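fyi for ur records
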Amino acid sequence: MMKSIIIDGNNNMWRAYSTHRNFIKSHPGVVGMFRIYISLLKKFGNDCVYYFVWDCGKSKERMEIYPEYKKKVKVFTPEEEKAYKEVISEINIFESFLRYLPVYSIKIPGNEGDDIIACISVLVDDSCVIVSTDEDFFQLLVNPKISVYNPIKDIIYDSINFKSIMGIDREKFLLYRSLVGDNSDNIIGVPSIGPKRAREIVLKYEIADIMLDRVDGKFSKLLNKYKDRISLNMSLISFNLSNDLKEKVCNQMKESRVSTVDLKSIEKLLWKYDIVELYDLLKEFV
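which gave:
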């Protein structure tokens, strides 16, 4: 069976754009994403199945139970607003290249890329590696066929090494994340609970202990007071693995992809977007 490499498109595009924008004049995000793709080919090989997955809206279900979900309190500066628009444009351009590579590019209107990635990871028969710096994917490590690769730290987290790296059981990560919250999605954690205290709590208690008031000691009153928030956070942070979304993902996974690289079509696009210097690099590795 072939290993699947599932790339968090938006997460990696922001990294590509941020690290290349100061020295690549023309389409730094696209250039950076190609370099990321090539680095993954070097690390995992050409014989893997590659998926690029993209955001295409906010989760309706999460917005219904928590209207403040992903709401940004901070006002963007003009420079930040410009960067956001440029990244969206870079994603669209990069997707046009993916049509000519032997990869899948998946996005489903009204769904977040993270949920799509989670669905793919449980649907594929073989082992898979999720490429992202988003720690929310750690909750999927309860499945031993799934691992998460952080390309910045160059660490692969899996069911075997997770506890030695993170200090908690993989089964407890969702509770841990619900205690500390997630600022990037405007999910507010429990006051006074940071990573250190959260680890202390999850090493001793299960979610059922918190919901049923079976916590004693110094955290008893605090966790009892905020148990509804913890429960809400768990619902928000958990991935959507509904049959409806799985079916939509399956339909896109069944769509054909090119079997080999179409270098002629890619070269035309490289000239069009003035990034022809990538041609030799792509020719060598893809």
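The mean pLDDT is 94. thats all i got for now
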